[in-house]
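ugh ok fine here u go
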Amino acid sequence: MDGHGVDRSRSSLLTRRLSLLISALVLAAAGTAHAGDDPDVGAGKCQVIKFCVGVGVDDETDGKGAQTGSHGSSGSKTQCRLTTKVDPKPPANHPIWNGADSKKSDLYFRECTDNNDGFVVVPQGQLAPQVDPRELAQRAVDSMTLLGPDIASPKAAGKYTIGVPMWMWVNKSATTFGPNTASASAGGITVTATAKVSKIVWQMGDDAFVTCNGPGTPYQASEGMAQSPTCGHVYSKSSAGAHSGKYPVTATSTWTIDWQGGGASGQLTEIRQTNVQVAIGELQVVR
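structure:
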């Protein structure tokens, strides 16, 4: 097939996909207008509360369909653009409007290179923005200057002992733990993103990994030899044989970012790391 044939085939494929997506939306809209109870969910059926698209779409799709508010990835190279305005509109009570006034808004089809297509709400009278809300969300995230964990313990200058519980915790700030909120605007729409650390994975240097779902608990002298209730580790071997006589400790934070705007919503993920060297010695007995 020559280049012109490939272009015609691709154009036909996109047209067919758009037709099927809009048809699915219309069917879901009709279901929303009359549904009194939860709809049946099964093969070839749509869950009205989330509206189903991608049903019966071409063989290149994964068969799962796409929804407004689908998850995005911070490292994605996906490109999206708004193409066709949906006419007639879904009913005013359809969840696709996400609280927007259907009489003052238009609905556009969003086409993405990864087949993660969907719909975007645009205020009536405004031109359809040619920027994808997910791209704006990423711009908002980039403006936050998210950093790795601000490690309070263990400290590089600290002295730690085999068999003695180590308490690990981090200092909290907007750039190192969150929450951190920022917005980005383009094409008449604004997307707001809120980021916060959902977990920190500590690589302790002795082949152990510790996952903590919070900042950890600061140690108090009154705790004595107790283990941390939220984030801790006990070394069983000295770091004397390690490079430079210290264990390399890496704290890796996972930032979870929820965003919404432009008639869409979703979630992004960012990863940040901080490193510290920790010396672990043996208990010295004085005679």
